[in-house]
Structures are given as structure tokens and as C-alpha cells.
Amino acid sequence: MSPSQHYRISGLYAITPDEPDTAELLRKVRLVLRGGAKVLQYRNKAADSRLRLEQAQALKGLTRDFSVPLIINDDVVLAQRVDAEGVHLGAEDASAVGARILLGSGKLIGISCYNRLELARAAVSQGADYVAFGSFFASTVKPGAVTATSKLLREARLEIATPLVAIGGITAHNGAQLLDAGASALAVISAVFGVDDIQGAAREFAALNFH
């Protein structure tokens, strides 16, 4: 069974912080996985290519131990190189079609659609396995991000069968309303990695009513 068939994007979708120390990154990720994260995206905008490869390879081994898919942010070649379960692309990155050609049919491809339903329609038509909307709330990671609404999730849910990922300033408290509106997964950085009790924070998210 291929990864895209075996894994469904749902639950707590943890995105890594920019952590230069690989051992510290693994410590944090291990805690978030123990807390119940169902997807891990490797994202490090500050790292050079050597460190990104080192960290991605290390995370691949860790996520395998937890049977959680590893998604690589913005870098199709790195995803292929470490045999990650998939890649997540923004509007300015490679297309879903191009990523599929390079990665093959068995990998997951996610596309950021911001606050635009038409981008989600296009992504799905190109073979995306999930689409992401946001920012739903003020985000410290992307303070200037466009704003998405619960209404957008409801509209998308009516016509898009693939999983919907919500991102941007989400906490275990405000995330419940996004799940009610149709989100399949909640993508989080600060609310889990930016707190003292990473495992406990992840457990709070995991306890929410995911569909």
C-alpha cells in the first residue's frame, strides 16, 4: 500500500520550528509525537542545504518509529532524497503536477491555498492529496499572512473531498471551531513547540474531536 493510501491527513499536524541543533529538534519532535501528533512537516527556513538534509534524514527515522508521515516543506528534491512520505508546496513553489512526476504516485502532496477556494479547486484537479487554508488567527510565525475564515472551510468542505488543513495562530482552544467548520487537521508550530510542556500541548490537540 502506498503512503498516500496508508496515511490520511487528519489530527494534529505538527510543523517543526527553525531549530539549528538537530539533537534538540529530535527531542522536541519526539515529545510532540508522543503527545499524539499524526503528521509531521519538516520546515526550517534558516538552515542551509547540508543541515536540512541532516535534519530531514534524522526526522525520517523518528517518524518511521511512530508510523507518522514526514512531509517536507517546499523542497521536492529533499523529499525525494530522504524518501519522505510527501511534500507541502506554497503558491510560489513547484506545481503539484511537477511534484507528482518527481515523487511518483505513492507520495502525499499538499498545497497551501491561503484564503482562496479557487486555488484549492485547482490543486485538487492537479492531484493534491490535501489542501491547506490560513491564516485563521494572528500568527507569530507569519504575522503578515492573509486571513481565512471558518466560512471558507465550510464552503470548501461542501465541494472538496480531500482533507482540509487549517493553519495560522491555532491553539487547542480556538481550533475546535475550525474542526466544526470542516477542517480535517490543525497545523501548528508555536502552540506545541513554543511551550514548556510540548507533549502535554500535543495531547490537548490530540484530544479534540477530529473527523
Summarize the structure.
The chain is α/β, with parallel strands linked by helices. Helix content is 41%, strand content 17%. The protein has helices at 3-6, 22-34, 49-65, 76-81, 96-103, 117-125, 150-159, 175-181, 190-193, 198-206; strands at 11-15, 39-42, 70-73, 86-89, 108-114, 130-133, 164-167, 185-188.
For this entry, give a set of tags:
8 strands; eight-stranded parallel beta barrel; 211 residues; 10 helices; alpha/beta; disordered N terminus; single chain; 41% helix; TIM Barrel
Structure classification: alpha/beta
Overall geometric form: globular
First and last CA, distance: 23 Å
CATH topology: TIM Barrel
Ranges where pLDDT stays below 50 over 5 or more residues in a row are 1-5
CATH class: Alpha Beta
Strand-residue proportion:
15-25%
The strand line-up of the biggest sheet is 1-2-3-4-5-6-7-8
The count of domains is: 1
Largest sheet, described in full? 8 strands, parallel, barrel
**Average residue pLDDT:** 94
Q: Helix count?
A: 10
Summarize the amount of helix as a percent range: 40-55%
> Which architecture per CATH?
Alpha-Beta Barrel
Task: Please provide a written account of the structure.
With 211 residues, this protein is α/β, with parallel strands linked by helices. The protein has one domain: Aldolase class I (TIM Barrel, Alpha-Beta Barrel). It has helices spanning 3-6, 22-34, 49-65, 76-81, 96-103, 117-125, 150-159, 175-181, 190-193, 198-206, and strands spanning 11-15, 39-42, 70-73, 86-89, 108-114, 130-133, 164-167, 185-188. It has an eight-stranded parallel barrel, surrounded by seven helices. Helix 6 links the parallel strand 5 and strand 6 (130-133). Helix 2 (22-34) packs parallel to helix 3 and helix 2 runs parallel beside helix 10. It starts with a helix and ends in a 5-residue tail after the last helix. The model is unreliable at 1-5 (pLDDT under 50).
